[in-house]
Specification:
Elements lengths: L7 E4 L6 E2 L1 H14 L7 H7 L4 H5 L5 H18 L5 E2 L3 H10 L3 E9 H10 L8 E5 L9 H10 L7 E5 L2 H9 L4 E4 L6 H6 L4 E3 L2 H7 L3
């Protein structure tokens, strides 16, 4: 631990540790087709996600359609979410190396908490994580600072020795609101330029590069 710059590492999930966009797009396509609407583009789906499921789907539906769409999407998602989900390049190596050095690792995500835990188990990374906390587990979502502080308290972490790793402005705001630096990877929903403009403390092309910066 003495050679690691941080003791605790909070990781975003989608676009940071996992690539789940194929499954997400497939679920939106299924839901829109239910209403006789064309499939969304990958760019439309990528721009919608990040603020929690209800906020994301509300970018496609309103009113009564929104209520029905929530049910259609959720039923399909629950049946198929473990299809087409993969770890981002370098994710397993990074988590394994940090865990092996005694670091405390946790996931903080706006994806439904129950889904997130199933996915982490499916991908075999759950044993490396002290906690996986997502939507509906608390009253908060990123970027609310209370969410960050809750996860830190849950794993017994000091903000002064913690880092949040993510891929979006939500992650940056969640980190800074909780008193943590935000290191970001440009492999998810936002470009390096967008992350820079949002105030990321450091930006990396991918998780292997971030690991190198940590001395792994």
């Amino acid at each position: 631990m003495a050679s690691l710059p941080f003791r605790t590492y909070l990781f975003d999930l989608d676009g940071t540790l996992i690539d789940h966009f194929a499954a997400i797009q497939r679920s939106y396509t299924h839901t829109l087709a239910h209403f006789g609407r064309p499939a969304p583009t990958r760019a439309e789906v990528r721009s919608a996600v990040g603020g929690g499921f209800e906020n994301s789907i509300a970018k496609f539906f309103v009113g009564r359609d929104l209520t029905e769409a929530l049910g259609v999407y959720r039923e399909y998602w629950d049946r198929t979410m473990l299809q087409d989900v993969i770890l981002m390049p370098g994710a397993r190596d990074l988590l394994t190396a940090l865990h092996g050095r005694g670091a405390v690792l946790a996931v903080i995500t706006n994806k439904l908490g129950s889904s997130s835990r199933l996915i982490c188990e499916h991908l075999g990374i759950q044993p490396l994580l002290r906690a996986v906390v997502g939507a509906k587990d608390t009253a908060w979502l990123k970027p609310e600072p209370e969410f960050t502080r809750h996860v830190l308290q849950l794993v017994g972490a000091d903000p002064a020795s913690a880092l949040l790793v993510g891929d979006s402005p939500y992650d940056i705001q969640a980190a800074h609101g909780g008193g943590l630096p935000a290191w970001c990877v440009s492999i998810g929903t936002h470009t390096a330029r967008e992350l820079e403009q949002a105030g990321a403390d450091r930006i990396f092309a991918g998780l292997p590069e971030l690991g190198q910066a940590l001395g792994l």
